[in-house]
Design brief:
It comes from Nicotiana tabacum (Common tobacco). This is Folylpolyglutamate synthase. An eight-stranded mixed sheet has the order 6-5-4-7-3-8-9-10. It is built from 19 helices and 21 strands. It is of the alpha/beta class.
Length: 634
Amino acid sequence: MILLYNNLYFGQEIMGHSKINASRRDHFLSGLNTWMGPNSPSSAHTDGVKKLQGLRYKNMSSQIVGKFSQNNQDISQEFQLPSAYESAMDALSTLITQKKRNGIPAISGQNQKLDRMLRYIKILGLEEKIAGLKIIHVAGTKGKGSTCAFCEAILRECGFKTGLFTSPHLIDVRERYRLDGMDICQEKFLQYFWGCWNQLKANVSEDLPMPPLFQFLTVLAFKIFVSEKVDVAIIEVGLGGKLDSTNVIKEPVVCGITSLGMDHMETLGDTLGQIASHKAGILKPQVPAFSVLQLSDAMEVLQERAKELKVSLQVVAPLNLEKLNGARLSLSGDHQLSNAALAVSLCKSWLRSTGNWKRLFEDAYEKDGLPEEFLRGLSAARLSGRGQIVADPLINVSGGNKRLSGDLTFYLDGAHSPESMDACARWFSASVVGRKDMSLSSVTSKDNKMERAWTNGYIKPCNNKDSDEMPKRILLFNCMDARDPQILLPKLVNTCASSGIYFSKAIFVPSISAYTKVTSATSAIPSYIPGKDLSWQFNLQRIWEKIIHGKDVLDQNLKINASVGVPPHEFLYKEASHCGPEDGYFACSAVFPSLPLTINWLRDCVRENPSLRLQVLVTGSLHLVGDVLKLLRR
């Protein structure tokens, strides 16, 4: 049994499959044909739907016991809800208009993109209803997802019905939509998905095709939040700000700008000022706005735009630990103090603008401290794949007083820019040495001589260190080819080294997720794809070996397919001094042909050596982080 805290990715709904009651089943079945409609790719499934016995969705408490029940077999083998859900994923995949991250946008005129967004909204009858949403709109290069998560948790703790829209998702597209802190369930998702899909499909024309993926997902967010009648909608910008699909929001209650840096330069420009200009595009006339501390080039642009709009742009300093009154942030890393401070300011502004601050707090917290509801929210916010620690649920098992295997713990952070990689390295370095002043949430208890520390939503077993334990730190890395690994990898190595943290090995592996396909938590995962091109992974290895050895040791033109296998377990124990690049042998790094094989290899290593303690940093790509989480869940 895996004990989880607020972890919707490891068992939000699937606590136990059982037959749903007759009235709910009939309601669901009668609506499914309507949702999917004749235009859906799934209409062929509707005959099978009539035999559906269904799933039971539960409102989960903050502590979730992820355990599959014996009732899994109750679901009809002829048709299961996941089949309908996979059909929705297939439909979404047809909306992908770019074949790679830095491809050419399908709509060349960006203003035309926003015009089309407004037309889609009008088709769905959402124009006036969106204006009624009380929105917090957040842009930034890094930290905007964390800031939004903090805002959602704070306002939920204040008693409001919350809606949260973030991107990207790591395991399942439903992660993008949270209602009262929970990912939207499959049943509701399908209802709103096919409703929007069919309405838009019925109105396509030569000059108004179906929206590209992110535009559709954004329109769907508005539909969900309007239909669910949320009190507050927290909307994270997808890319940039001024021309982002979310910027059809005309009158948000408050806007926020998180830390700005060099990212998505192929779209936003190659200077910090140009990037800041895009981010400042979400600011609206006379709408309160807040920003974290920025570099001068970015701050000047933000302040100039705020002045043009007659906006009072307030700059927020990082949260003082004293204001937390002993509480700790649930999202780990010192950089989260800035995100938390911005969230606190945004929530206070939202509460005042909506007339709720005095009703709830009567200005009791104007100067000193934070309301208890704010502290609870800051301690409960969750965002997978950012400063997250997960102990492998299939390892770390003991038999009585005897360790049956070693210890395998994954440190996951989807850092993919120089600034976020620096923050990731500092977080990882502090985490592996157990620094006590980290801002992450920590709750301890004792059970059968086992300490458990809550770490960003997961139980991390903290076994007493045996004198013969053998800790090894492993880097598991991949990044998209639009990134520059010659900047990211040295930044990671140097920042870790400054804290005395070094990697025993580096493993480079292709991600499972494809940019051209939307998958779900239940989508099939191939353990191995014969003939897969690994030339990018060998390029990453070449850069790594140059960092270690100070010179090129691999042919830059090397192209090797997936016929390469995994190394023997002995590779884990070879010291760097055994490297023989001229002989084609590398003791510092390896390229693995697939992620499932990598995870299994790591598990086998710790199973055969009870004294081995592996600390695996997974970074470079949110796709990679999501793939690892998906595999650990299974």
